[in-house]
Amino acid sequence: MKSCSEALKIPTFLDIRKREGEMKEQKRVAIYARVSTVGAGQDPGMQVAELKEYCRRRGWKVAGEYVDAGISGAVDSRPELNRLMADAHRRAVDVVVCWKFDRFARSASHLLRALETFRALGIEFISVTEQLDTATPVGRMVFTILGSVAELERSLCVERVKCGMRNARAKGKLIGRPALRKFSREEVEKIQSARKKKESIRQLAIQHRTTQYTIGRILAGKYAASQNQILL
After folding, report:
1. Residues sharing a CB contact under 8 Å with residue 219, sequence separation 6 or more, in sequence order
2. Tens of pLDDT along 190-230?
């Protein structure tokens, strides 16, 4: 004969603690899938099915499905990805799960920007096939490596630009935006003379149809009238 507690199925203290733990661990997940072309053997449904199964095994709740079909990964702005990022900013999800890195972003810089956003919002990012989870030590290490690579990429880009500018100057080319209008040496002297008579820079800019910045460069002696260009 069953006891009263068994007949009534009164939950024990351990059962209550277990349920509380399950409720606490249940996370709201956003799954993201993308295919570059619709048809031709590409179907986002396969990605979505695997991602759902991944979440089911972990007891996570799928809060939303975000699928971009027929959009290249090289495009940073995509309708469903934009919606996902908006929901992330609203704290509507706890975890973002994608099938593979290149489904989410093709460039390292775009991926890193998204990961930085997720980290700032306290959102985990998981790539199922690469088995990368930013909540784990290994995932955080990969995140750090990606950040270092992106920083190196930015530094190399800046150095290439500076090198190009030095090369252009060496060939006698002028760097920077051209002035809104050209000033002769007589006009430069006239502006400098008017300034000595307490004429405001704003009034001089209006009179000579140019910017206050240009007037300031002229007064500072950094405008080469013979070349009609502000020197940097």
Report:
1. 191, 192, 195, 201
2. 888 888 888 898 988 888 888 888 888 888 887 765 444 44
**CATH annotation of 4-149:** 3.40.50.1390
Distance CA 181, CA 196 (A): 23
Question: What distances in angstroms separate CA 30 from CA 65, 75, 146, 152, 155, one per listed residue?
Answer: 6, 20, 23, 31, 34
Secondary structure element (H or E) that encloses residue 21, with its range: helix 13-25
How confident is the model over 91-125, as pLDDT tens digits? Answer: 999 999 998 888 888 777 788 888 889 989 999 99
139: left (phi over 0), alpha (psi -120 to 50) or beta: alpha
- Return d(Cα 183, Cα 226) in angstroms, integer: 9
Tell me the CA distances in angstroms from 69 to 37, 47, 81, 136, 146, one per residue in order: 7, 12, 11, 30, 27
226 assigned to active site: no
Residue spans in the chain of domains classed CATH 3.40.50.1390: 4-149
Main-chain phi, psi angles of 80, to 5 degrees = -75, -35
Of 36, 127, 155, 184, the active-site residue reads 36
Please, which residues bridge with residue 35 across strands?
69
Classify the C-alpha dihedral 226-228-229-231 as positive or negative. positive
Q: Is the separation of the CB atoms in 118 and 96 below 8 Å?
A: yes
The pTM for the full model equals: 0.54
Give the Cα separation of 128 and 131 in Å (integer).
5
